[in-house]
Amino acid sequence: MKKSERVKKTTAKAGIRQENEKIILKAAESVFAEYGFRGATTSMIAEQANIPKANLHYYFPTKEALYRQVVDNIFNIWLQAADSFDDCDDPVEALSRYIEKKMDISRDNPMGSKVWANEIIQRAPVIQDYLETTLKDWTESRAVIIRRWIAQGKINPIDPQYLLYMIWSTTQHYADFNHQIETLNGGTPLSDAQYRVAKDNVIEIILTGIGAVQRRRNSLLQDNSPKDQQEKSDRA
Amino acid sequence: MKKSERVKKTTAKAGIRQENEKIILKAAESVFAEYGFRGATTSMIAEQANIPKANLHYYFPTKEALYRQVVDNIFNIWLQAADSFDDCDDPVEALSRYIEKKMDISRDNPMGSKVWANEIIQRAPVIQDYLETTLKDWTESRAVIIRRWIAQGKINPIDPQYLLYMIWSTTQHYADFNHQIETLNGGTPLSDAQYRVAKDNVIEIILTGIGAVQRRRNSLLQDNSPKDQQEKSDRA
DNA sequence: TTATTTCCTGACCATTTGGTCAAGTTAACG
DNA sequence: CGTTAACTTGACCAAATGGTCAGGAAATAA
């Protein structure tokens, strides 16, 4: 009988599990994003992760367990974005920050957004619970804030839920439909500068659209963002 | 099978093919919408259509042929919406009509929108050609119109492509994410009245957002849509 | 009527799929 | 060193999948 059920080390062997799980999760995210749960296969994921399929099943016993883990990570990112919409008296500040955050996430983690989209399209077999609890509560709490802005005359009277849908859809579109956007952009991804403009446009149109700011013709940007949008180091 | 054919075609046999293809295509659309091309199975589609799988393959030799047909139908609907964005001097009229049309399509044909979303997420294996030709040309022609409105001082200077993305994403969101919307709506779909409000909100925010109309606080609606919006025939 | 075309379907097949397993290899620890 | 626990993987399996086919049913044409 084995007497030493040791606690995991922090040495070579110990890091292997952590490392491999990370590699597998990343591969899984991109395959699930592209093909959805049913359409993805464990072989594809293993291949993407550059490991034998049997090894994948050593770390994640079932496809479903792996998927759940992926979805969980994505939900955490969602929560992170949600936090940036804080209870602030100034709608311009609160919404600008939130939209900007969501746009950043779309750019930095497009696969996650696609997995989420697939989940919803498939009627949320895994995250339905989140939708009914965490998401619903959060949405209602933000609706309260938005209604207060309306009552204070800071924005036009619009129904909070539809404003949120507009923010979600517009920002996530840059992740979920990035292939279409890229195609229309001549086959190349939006540059950093273009993405900056896209972001500013989204913020501008929504904030103006709800009457939070009074934009007049010929002034695209106010000062909602620093001026450093110029060259911004094109990434390859 | 059923003897529920009330409307006889010219001859019984003649109408059978047409009728069955329609049933199969409808079933295929909803299954492809939910699971994507890879995730969908011909058995699922056959079951949804209430016919044996072998019969499905009698009408559509391969899964891919069936999928292409589905996608083709959807593209035609897209074209139909595209037509409603006409070369009009008034941005309010042109955009209101276009957005309204897109919202109606999202409501009447949510499955089609989801198939499209899946296609794009999967990098458009089937419609890439459309994206590069028809869609690109259309987008550029609309950009010209939008730039003219800007030059004429009718709307704020925004980049046309990002405006189009916002319209697409916002309107299609009501189809692609209708499950999430329904969940947040307490488990029931948006009523006709709610959908009407959603539509008006979208039109209002975007038109105001680009400076096409000067909305002030406390006046949600103007008369942005024609009179015939009266009852709109409550479905179910 | 008979002949012909169209439609229908249970049974079948080759391939792919999620998942297992036993036999290894590698690293930690005494 | 030897023992042990963690990691690796080729080979395998049962179920699911896309697709076929032969034979039958139904409508139309002759």
From TrEMBL, chains A, B:
Keywords: DNA-binding. It holds the Pfam family TetR_N. It comes from the Bacteria. Residues 41-60 bind DNA. InterPro entries: Homeodomain-like_sf, HTH-type_TetR-like_transc_reg, HTH_TetR, Tet_transcr_reg_TetR-rel_C_sf, Tscrpt_reg_YcdC_C. PROSITE patterns: HTH_TETR_2 (PS50977). Coiled coil: none annotated. Residues 18-78 form the HTH tetR-type domain. This is TetR/AcrR family transcriptional regulator.
